[in-house]
Amino acid sequence: MIFPDAKTKMIAILGHPVRHSFSPIIHNTALRHQGLNFVYLAADVLANSLPQALQGLSALGFAGANVTIPHKEAVLPYMDSLTSGAKAVGAVNTIVCKGDMLYGDNTDIEGFLSPLRGMEIKGEPMVLLGAGGAARAAAYGLLKYHRPRPLTVVARRVDQAEKLVNDLARFRGDGELNVTDFASAAAFVRNSQLIVNSTPVGMHPNTRETPWEQREDFSSGQLVYDLVYRPNRTRLLEDAESRGATVIGGLNMLVEQAAAAYRQWTDRDLPIEAVYSTLRSLLD
After folding, report:
1. How many CA atoms lie within 13 A of 279 on its CB side?
2. What is the per-residue pLDDT for 169?
3. Which of 35, 73, 133, 185 has the fewest CB neighbours in a 10 Å radius?
4. CB 15 within 8 A of CB 70
5. Taking the alpha carbons of 146, 147, 149, 151 in that order, is the dihedral positive or negative?
6. Could you report the per-residue pLDDT of 72-82, keeping only the tens digit for each?
7. Pairing between strand 94-98 and 101-105?
8. 164 burial type by CB count under 10 A (0-12 exposed, 13-18 middle, 19+ buried)
9. Which of 72, 87, 122, 144 is catalytic?
10. Which parts of the chain register pLDDT below 50?
């Protein structure tokens, strides 16, 4: 075991609150497994302290940071450079420190797309439940790489969904974009090959809730992807699987977005199996 010393590289997650975050568990498991002299910390940062916290990353020699709610958009003006994905989504979840420069990325996009590799869904109809921050990364990834015809964004606040669609319309290529509310979405859900839940509905402790109550709308041949990772098997996934659909849990995205950030900080691949083993022992 490596104990922190003057050469230890620090990484932190910046958010408010951060006590629920699994990121310290993921990254510290990986760092210890590979014997790297890094430590990953959780920093509860209030909005009015965010500028000082970001300045402190460079001053203290941090390797980088993750950014979570409610700061993903607020950090944008403080970045010296942004990746194309972070610019498109309008949010940063990963910061890489190089000298006194801060580089902003959004690895939620790569994390979201990773479980979909090899899936024959390009050009198929898709539904995205929710229009918040997670939905923006998912929508951008789907539009850029899978060209849905159409992608229907379903939200309780239609104005929020319309803003998402307007912001990302330039990335749709030959794909299509629709907006509707939950009351009018049944036909879209029934006729889509991919249904993604980006809302927090069904998350612990409200594990018997679901963003889509009509389980009869699911069928074999569909792929249902829930970004909620606690529990790993949500009621939405149980309902969809009972109707013959293929399901993907949110733990995949959680680990893969972490892997994309870890690679930028350490130049090493995340030891996926060691991380999954630790997380499953905590979630089961």
Report:
1. 25
2. 92
3. 35
4. yes
5. positive
6. 999 999 999 99
7. antiparallel
8. buried
9. 72
10. none
pLDDT in the model for residue 1: 62
Give all domains of the chain, ordered by start, each with its CATH number. Answer: 9-106+253-283 (3.40.50.10860), 110-249 (3.40.50.720)
Question: What is the predicted pLDDT for the residue at 141?
Answer: 96
Q: What is the largest CA-CA distance in the chain?
A: 60
What is the spatial distance between Cα 83 and Cα 108, in angstroms, rounded to a whole number?
12
CB 62 within 8 A of CB 9: yes
- At residue 127, φ and ψ (nearest 5 deg) are -125, 135
Token pair 């408010």 is found at: 16
Single-letter code of the amino acid located at 65: A
Report residue 47 as tokens: 């909005």
pTM of the complete model: 0.91
Residue corresponding to tokens 């905590």:
282
pLDDT of residue 108: 96
Helix (H, G, I), strand (E, B) or coil at 22: coil
